[in-house]
Amino acid sequence: MKKILLDTNVIIDIALDRDEFVANSIELLLLLNKLEYKTFITATTVTDIYYISKKQVGRDKTLNFLTKLFEHIKIAGVDASIILNALKSGIKDFEDSIQIETAKQNDINIVITRNKKDYENSNLNIYTPDEYINILKLENLK
Predict the structure, then answer these.
(1) Distance CA 113, CA 118 (A)
(2) What pLDDT was estimated at residue 142?
(3) Average pLDDT for residues 41-63, to the nearest whole number?
(4) What are phi and psi of 18, to 5 degrees?
(5) Strand order in 74-76's β-sheet?
(6) Which residues of 101-125 are buried (b: 16+ CB within 10 A; e: fewer)?
(7) 97 and 89 in contact (C-beta within 8 Å)?
């Protein structure tokens, strides 16, 4: 079974109903759920979503969103090893290095993000939501 890590921006697009991106992000989640892929976000993503979403839509809506999200998405833990490897990784953006190291430590080789350039040197398979939706549709036509 394929394992996929969703970057924070994909989930924030849904939580904040960002016009330009929300439809694709929801479609992606629905497809991944339907195909029973193991889909993850990192523990640090949870705190980022809470912090950002709470400011814009309030605490109750944010907690409700997260509760529903976790019915379909698993949380990949972030431990000392991941943090130390991220610090040593040489990747400029610490949050991205946490995502990369978490994926690697959990044998996840697919990351879906709107910011592919942030993962250029990760040695992971990086896709935008649009790209991965197309891959899923093609795979399921066979």
Answers:
(1) 9
(2) 57
(3) 96
(4) -70, 115
(5) 74-76, 38-42, 3-6, 110-112, 125-127
(6) bbbbebebbbbbbbeeebbeebebe
(7) yes
Kindly report the backbone phi and psi dihedral angles of residue 127, in degrees, each rounded to the nearest multiple of 5, phi listed first.
-135, 155
Nearest to 6, CA basis, from 102, 81, 82, 138: 102
Other CB atoms within 10 Å distance of the CB of residue 58: 11
- C-alpha 119/C-alpha 116 separation (Å) is 6
Kindly report, residue by residue over 103-130, the tens digit of the pLDDT: 999 999 999 999 999 898 899 999 999 9
Are 55 and 5 in contact, with CB atoms under 8 Å apart?
no
Whole-number Å distance between alpha carbons of 26 and 31: 9
Using the structure block, give the residue that is written with the tokens 């944010």: 62
